Amino acid sequence: MSQSREVFSVAKVNNTIATTVCSKMTEKEIYDALDCGEPPQELLEWAKENLGEDPETKCQIISDFRDMIYARGECTPHRTDDAFLLRFLRARHFIIERAHRLLVNYYDFREVNPQYCQNIDLTTLKKIGADQVILVPPYRDGNGRRMMQYRIGSWDPEKHSLDEMFQATIATVEMALIEPRAQILGGICLFDLAGLSMQQAWYMTPNVAHKMVQIMVTSFPIRIHALHIVNQSYVFDIIFNIFKPFLNDSMKERIFFHGDNMESLHKHVDPKYLPERYGGIHPDYNYEYWVEICRQNKQVVNEMKELGYRDSELEEKE
After folding, report:
1. Residue 289 has pLDDT above 70, yes or no
2. How confident is the model at residue 188 (pLDDT cuts 50, 70, 90)?
3. N or C: which end of the chain has fewer CB within 10 A?
4. What was the pLDDT predicted at 126?
5. Distance of CA 149 to the CA centre of its chain
6. How far apart are alpha carbons 189 and 97 in whole angstroms?
7. How far from each other are the two terminal CA atoms of the chain, in whole angstroms?
8. What is the reported pTM?
């Protein structure tokens, strides 16, 4: 929709922690721009209560965290400024030891898997969105969290390689993490398995399962609060059995199975924040919309460049 490419103003809705952009849009087309500024006071209060982000101790904890990184030398971060280190502390409730382990895991993953996150052209990844395999709606849920959607049944392994799927996933996570809101509130994932075939299931090896868990849980500073599975069939049981060995009890508690019962999904996610196909009110927004949203923010563009990403379309315009 051409409307989603316009410039929109930000308005606080119902004094919640979510920020909703609604200028020049219909009710069904709520648009949410990236917000990379300082979090509002109510969000900082939530972080203090739920993450241990105390303004009186935060600066000292960041300093101690930085000292630990230098002293142990287990990784060489490309950045050690406060804003970058904060995302790792927030992901691990300001427990320095856990944040350090996450930081080391993050750089280990990037070193071991350069094909997923180095010299990647964001423009080429937009083709995945054209087939609606990965979607990132340009709005948040009722808790202010962003949602990432996978429609695995729409995935053609011959057209979009597994490497490209990982590249798009990681790029989405990296762009989202530039937002302090995402660092504090985390996100949710929805896997739609309608049409999942045995041919697609064969690609879900233990190695693939392990990498997915690394991205979602152990190696990136994002907290996935819930993973919702819809329209699953017997084929999914095969895949899930591959994933189970990599999931601890805490992870399993965050997975919810709904089948084709959208009312079950609505108990967790209000229909106001879902596409029409899941009983909601919104149209589908593919991966291209997410890239376009991020392109509107120079900070996001610059930070993605620092991570080694390219954007050939922007380069041509420049």
Report:
1. yes
2. very high
3. C
4. 78
5. 10
6. 27
7. 25
8. 0.86
